[in-house]
Write a structure and sequence with these properties.
5-stranded antiparallel beta sheet; 24 strands; 568 residues; 23% strand; 16 helices; 6-stranded antiparallel beta sheet; alpha+beta; elongated
């Protein structure tokens, strides 16, 4: 796979065929040179073996990452042929110094475990832990032991040997599993992680039925079914449904100190997969919180999977892990491919270069911070994006003033502590409702402007100890509303707001009432905002989006939030 004109130690693959290993091969791979100790060891290559099903090892993400991994001077990559993995004994498998191996459909995990015991290479992803990842019960058990938040759940084991774990009582709008009650909506997951037929059951108040999730088929990821009763065969995990904002967060780690996160439309919504013009599922990079970064680190270490994907649900101000997928790559992100290859390459060299006496020094950046290619060369990774953003198109702001002396206004002014500063601003709906209840101004505004609404609406009251300055002669005979707002006198006639000039101009304290409203985003403004959001995701150097990374220098073992990645 790598061809730089350097010696390669791809033992076991000549012309695509495996061959028996001789003693010289074993000395070469193990690093024991015997009589050849005088050989120039600076040409020694570290062989990274890729042991997985062909569909995975030849996928675009894997190919992109391996091509970058080969740029390390002392690393050579050897992809194990699928026919060898399936049909040959492990003794005839190619030799390697570092093994990247992971389970998928049809993969002989038992053979891979035996190979690892026989050759004892450096493991990127622990093979024995991959048995646990295939069982959702074990996944949830490990998450609980690590103190990681997950949805409230119960396990229904339909096992004849364990009848005490198979107590299910089903009612119209809830189920009771081994004494634990789950009201609809709740989620029903097969215990096998290979089974993606997850059902969500709805209460009768929402129409009943269930949403049936499955692996994406074309443009569908789920369908609605009128069936409301749970499945009666097989073992399942029942868990509380977490109400999110309609998205799932997918997190991808590369070691405990790096994580990339993306959001996608939840398949539980309508089952329709959102795709771009090229037919790829639309995903957006998201920022992880400090707690979520700690969760990523815990998941990576707990399952001993350097390259690991898991799912987060953000609900009620908290994040819950609902699935751990094991070996997973980000799709269609050149930035991620660069980072992943660099982190893996440095990890391999750090572990094996001293063992094989390879003259390799640890890079200056202790945390393996990737550099970013630009049109003018390379630069350090982006840490922060600062933007000055103005609102989009919106309706005009409106303002209306009036002097008031009604006792109700003074009571309102006192109620909310206006006398402390002499000024009062009312913005909350409950406060505004108090003004609406005893004041006809909203009706005046509706007559003149159509409505009194908008996110910026507010009422201001200012205490005037001596009242407003007296009106000019040309304002004689005008009502209070007309005098200060120039509203047509038909308003006064309609709503009987006329007051005598003696009342308006009488001396004594008063309150200046100011109403402000408008400034609402128009349909054009909404389009502008959405377009800016999409553009903002592509402002990262290289055009791959503002992604989330998790870097933790070795000198900061307990301060994960020191380098929290780029911020928007």
């Amino acid at each position: 796979m790598c061809n730089r004109g350097l010696p390669r130690l791809l033992i076991g693959r000549e012309g695509g065929e495996s061959r028996e290993l001789d003693e010289g091969d074993m000395r070469s791979i193990s690093g024991h040179y015997g009589e050849d100790e005088e050989e120039d060891q600076s040409k020694r290559q570290i062989v990274v073996g890729i042991c997985s099903m062909m569909k995975k090892s030849t996928s675009k993400p894997m190919t992109e990452i391996l091509e970058r991994l080969c740029k390390f001077e002392y690393i050579t990559v050897d992809v194990f042929p699928e026919e060898v993995i399936l049909n040959e004994p492990v003794e005839k498998w190619p030799l390697c110094d570092c093994l990247i191996s992971f389970h998928s459909k049809g993969f002989p995990l038992d053979k891979a475990v035996n190979y690892a015991k026989l050759r004892n290479p450096l493991h990127i992803n622990d093979l024995n832990m991959q048995y646990f990842i295939q069982d959702r019960r074990e996944v949830y058990r490990i998450l609980q032991e690590e103190g990681i938040d997950l949805p409230r759940y119960a396990v229904l084991n339909r096992d004849p040997d364990r009848p005490e774990e198979c107590n299910l009582v089903e009612s119209e709008d809830h189920v009771e599993v081994n004494g634990e009650v789950f009201h609809k909506p709740f989620v029903e997951k097969p215990v096998s992680a290979e089974d993606h037929n997850v059902y969500i059951y709805y209460p009768t108040s929402a129409g009943g039925g269930s949403q049936r999730l499955f692996r994406k088929i074309g443009s569908r990821s789920s369908v609605y079914s009128p069936e409301s009763t749970v499945r009666k065969t097989g073992s399942y995990i029942y868990e509380e449904f977490m109400a999110t904002d309609g998205t799932d967060v997918k997190v991808y780690t590369v070691g405990p100190d790096y994580a990339h996160a993306e959001a996608r439309k939840s398949p539980a919504l309508d089952g329709k997969v959102e795709r771009d013009s090229e037919g790829k599922e639309i995903r957006y990079p998201v920022m992880l919180t400090a707690m979520e970064k700690l969760v990523a680190r815990k998941v990576c270490l707990a399952f001993k999977q350097t390259v690991c994907g898991f799912d987060l649900l953000r609900a009620n101000g908290h994040s819950f892990v609902c699935d751990v997928n094991g070996f997973s790559f980000v799709k269609n992100s050149m930035k991620y491919y660069d980072d992943c290859a660099k982190v893996l390459g440095n990890m391999v060299m750090r572990e094996l270069a001293p063992q094989f006496h390879i003259p390799w020094s640890i890079p200056m950046e202790a945390e393996d911070i990737p550099i970013v290619p630009t049109t003018s060369g390379t630069m350090m990774e982006l840490r922060c994006v600062i933007a000055v953003i103005r609102h989009g198109d919106r309706t005009p702001k409106q303002k209306m003033k009036m002097e008031v002396r009604n006792a109700l206004f003074f009571d309102l002014f006192e109620k909310y502590g206006g006398y402390k500063t002499g000024k009062l601003k009312l913005k909350k709906p409950k406060q505004l409702q108090g003004v609406v209840c005893f004041c006809p101004l909203p009706r005046v505004l509706s007559f003149r402007y159509g409505h009194f609404s908008g996110i910026n609406r507010k009422v201001q009251l200012t205490y005037l100890p001596n009242g407003q300055p007296k009106a000019s002669s040309e304002e004689e005979g005008m009502c209070a509303v007309c005098m200060l707002t120039q509203i047509s006198c038909c308003c006064c006639v309609t709503f009987d707001l006329s007051v005598s000039m003696a009342d308006v101009l009488k001396e004594g304290p008063s309150l200046l009432l100011v109403l402000k409203w408008g400034g609402e985003l128009t349909p054009a403004g909404r389009v502008q905002a959405e377009e800016l959001g999409r553009a903002f995701r592509c402002m990262y150097p290289g055009g791959q989006g503002i992604t989330q990374h998790l870097h933790q220098p070795e000198s900061w073992p307990n301060k994960l939030d020191k380098n929290s990645g780029p911020k928007k």
